[in-house]
Write a structure and sequence with these properties.
This protein is about 55% helix and about 10% strand. It contains eight helices and four strands.
């Protein structure tokens, strides 16, 4: 793999005409000098790159050099992991498609069947309903449970047949229980 080394002619200056391209041999000799040793921490490999393209090392400020080294170390770690385990690692924070910066790992891992907000809201409402149900009489709890909360809700007529309670009494307890629940739960019912 071809490597390119770009160092600043004058480390104190910036600009297009301040760069010097070195071969691998020239760079190795430069790094042996006192000047090269003092600038070592500011030279890092540019992250990324496509297969077949040269690997480019460039002199940058110390913060950028640290970031590039961190990115390159992570990429190396992920590559070793993928090779060792025979799996593909998809970063949660980085787009797998360089041209499509709108996509990230979060979008790739999104579960369209998961509705967290709805589930949490339903859980809170259910908890509030169960708390409120504790304040109803036993017959009111039974009526509300069988008419509204069971997997197969009954009609008032079916409740009458199943439990031997007159339909008008079932209706009375239903209306009474619903009114109490409205008062206890406020506008959530």
């Amino acid at each position: 793999m071809k490597k390119e080394f770009w160092i600043k002619k004058d480390p104190a200056k910036d600009g297009q005409d301040n760069w010097k391209k070195l071969s691998s041999y020239e760079f190795a000799r430069f790094m042996e000098t006192a000047d090269g040793k003092s600038r070592k921490e500011n030279i890092a490999r540019i992250p990324g790159g496509e297969p077949g393209e040269p690997i480019i090392y460039m002199e940058v400020d110390s913060q950028t050099a640290k970031e590039w080294k961190r990115e390159n170390n992570r990429a190396c770690y992920l590559q070793k992991t993928m090779n060792a385990l025979g799996i593909e690692v998809i970063s949660y924070n980085v787009s797998p498609n360089v041209e499509d910066w709108e996509v990230n790992g979060e979008a790739l891992l999104e579960d369209p069947d998961c509705h967290v907000e709805d589930d949490v809201l339903r859980s809170i409402l259910t908890e509030n309903m169960l708390d409120a149900m504790c304040h109803l009489s036993e017959i009111e709890q039974k009526v509300i449970t069988h008419l509204y909360l069971s997997d197969e809700p009954m009609t008032e007529h079916e409740f009458e047949k199943a439990f031997g309670v007159k339909r008008c009494t079932v209706h009375y307890y239903k209306v009474s229980a619903l009114e109490k629940l409205r008062e206890m739960l406020g506008e959530n019912v």
